[in-house]
Hints:
The protein has helices at about 5-10, 15-25, 45-50, 65-85, 100-105, 110-120, 120-140, 155-170, 190-195, 220-230, 245-250, 265-275, 290-295, 305-315, 315-320, 325-335, 345-355, and strands spanning about 5, 35-40, 55-60, 85-95, 145-150, 180, 200, 205, 210, 215. With about 375 residues, the protein is α/β, with parallel strands linked by helices. β6, α9 and β7 form a beta-alpha-beta unit.
Amino acid sequence: MxxxxxxxxxxxxxxxxxxxxxxxxxxxxxxxxxxxxxxxxDAYSIIRSLFKxxxxxxxxxxxxxASCIINLAIHVRAYFETRHNVSSKVYIIYGGARNNQSxxxxxxxxxxxxxxxxxSNAFLKNLVKDNMEVVQLISQYLxxxxxxxxxxxxxxxxxSHIIDRELKANTNNSVITPNIIYSKxxxxxxxxxxxxxxxxxxxxxxxxxxxxxxxxxxxxxxAYRGGELKMKTTSYxxxxxxxxxxxxxxxxxxxxxxxxxxxxxxxxxxxxxxxNDGILINGYNESILYRSDVIxxxxxxxxxxxxxxxxxxSIDLNFQSNNHLNILDCTDSxxxxxxxxxxxxxRSINDQYFRKYPLDLxxx
Length: 364
């Protein structure tokens, strides 16, 4: 097997501008009342691709990971500035989903495959850690590009915390700033479902083709089944997008080592039946959290209701975001969001760390 450069793998997550234009046109119906956009880059889901290469990975520069991640932020922001004359804040977020007790108490094997894959490659694991420290260092000197690293939290939980904070800070603004979630992770679909004016830009390359797609609330279930689960045909479903976390609890989340109980088609049919029978509402079923009669009425020969509840609690964005320990941890992580814009310092760091893979400072 031929060695593959770190940079080549990470550049594969750069959505081409012509493709991004079509995605943006679809998401916003060709218009938006906002002159700003918030962009959330899921660095964990992008860097995870490196671990999957194993011994075939070639590291030709100690800081190529940091360079590629920062340049990705610059790449996406420059798109909105040059194509739509829209300003942006970019949040580079690395959430490792490790040792989070508010998750593990419900799902002990949560994310174990990814963690095992990372721990079995100590060199790459430490390289990623060093590179994310450099991304944190330099981002504070870049204008409106921020970096948050928390190895215990989920990307979606950290992003949700920032989105809620932005909404609270702009309560007097009649125009809601759109959120772009730039991620390759299955759980990121929940941000589209639960957060206002939020879209998922899902990078996907196949050889020379850019097959990336955009996810809106109205396309969420079809995009998830067709894109993530690779179902060739996806029948229409009337399920509200806010049922995505319950759907994932039953159909499984490959990205987090949660195996399926029912396949996607059977999961949809079961949930539709439960809605039609009045057991579940067609929306967010918060009652699962505190009413045993609701979860016990999810009857199916393949399902242990208590197992469904535990799966749901481990992955559900709303539940995990409102967990007291997670709130404290996320709040502490927000301390790294500082704006010390200093072009001279950026050039100095660029000259020191990024000689082989320089930062694209002409577009900052």
